[in-house]
Amino acid sequence: MNIRHKANRIRLFTLSTPQMRAFHMSWFAFHVCFFGWFGIAPLMAVVRDDLGLTKTQIGNTIIASVAITIVVRLVIGLLCDRIGPRKAYTWLLCLGSLPVMLIGLADSFETFLMARLAIGAIGASFVITQYHSTMMFAPNVVGTANATTAGWGNLGGGTTQILMPLVFSGILMLGVNEALGWRLAMVVPGIVLFLTGVAYYRFTQDAPDGNFSDLRSRGELPPATKEHGALQSFLSAAKDIRVWALFIVYAACFGVELTINNIAAIYFFDTFSLSLATAGLIAGLFGMMNLFARTLGGVFSDLFARRGGLKGRVRWLFVAMLCEGIALIGFAQMQTLAVAIGIMLVFSLFVQMAEGATFGVVPFINKKALGAVAGIVGAGGNAGAVAAGFLFRSESLSYQQGLFYLGVAVILASLCTLAVRFTPATEAEEGLAYEQASGERGNSAQPAAAR
């Protein structure tokens, strides 16, 4: 897919270009999605008492919240190739808002489980965010752009942990009891999701030169016909072993982050006998690291590419994954609250840098099937969360033991980066593209909107 006039730098404080409008809207939309996706997580202690849930049942709801996203992420990447990220995001946000608002009707484990399963589809928003930023930014900054939009979106995992207990407390101050309070609290993110969907349609476009429908009508983009269809795109990506290697890698970084988002509040609540608000605040620190950590992963990916090309990006990904696994094993051993918080932050730094490093590599795997590649790799994150969820649903396995085993799995997964290789021709082509993008700032042929 040959998209022209991509931006070769990130101008954070402007909304005057389509590139930067897509940048800011995509991270904000993904950020808001976390309020719907994990808004119930910091309230689980209340939900547990209200619905009488066991640890195994809570584990099953955690698995449900991320399992459906595997399938939806696969589909959404193909949908982006077909109708463009603008329409795909709008539909996902508006339709996804409905189960978020309706989860309050759950009155049993079964209905609560089904609601979390439906809400999990919102997690596919990540793929659209990465797809849209890749459409808008040149090779010299695409790693940073992808990492920042995803990182600031993932930041929603932290702000959700902090703000949802406050929303809940505010509702209780109105005289509502806890059983009704958590149900009303979930209406708030549902409304915000719907309004964000409307704004996304209004203020963004698919590519720097217009929407996919416009580009196809002008002959600048292949038509969405059978020969360029979803099945061919998916098969092209699915046949590439590098895609599945990155699937496993992303399972071991973003999958781990999703798992921590789901269990952190109740873990600190039970283990250290904290209040719900305090446990939520501490759990929120993990996600708040996304303010800069995932961006760093992308920045380092672009920096390593300057000297080492695509090999440099892959080497950095391996280092970040290895450090993540070691830090997670250390976190699993902590028994003191202050030390546990400190090690959690170190672990959070590396897990999020690994995520940024992963999607610093993804745009270069198969440009003709970008949506399919992003969808498969993105689905890996949720597959990892599902697998990790089984570690924390067992009554006989403690949280500390589960985290230790998870750390070992991350270290083993880091070895999959060895399978991510590029041909000398691809290395040379992308090296030239990087140099051209870096030198375009002074090129008068480059439209001002792209700069």
Automatic annotation (TrEMBL):
Pfam families: MFS_1 (PF07690). This is MFS transporter. Gene3D superfamilies: MFS general substrate transporter like domains. One of its GO terms (cellular component) is membrane. GO terms for biological process: nitrate assimilation. It comes from the Bacteria. GO terms for molecular function: nitrate transmembrane transporter activity. The chain crosses the membrane at residues 21-46, 58-76, 88-106, 112-131, 152-174, 180-201, 243-268, 274-293, 314-332, 338-362, 369-391, 403-422. Keywords: Membrane, Nitrate assimilation, Transmembrane, Transmembrane helix. It is found in: Membrane. It comes from Larsenimonas rhizosphaerae. It is a multi-pass membrane protein. Residues 22-425 form the Major facilitator superfamily (MFS) profile domain. Belongs to the major facilitator superfamily. Nitrate/nitrite porter (TC 2.A.1.8) family.
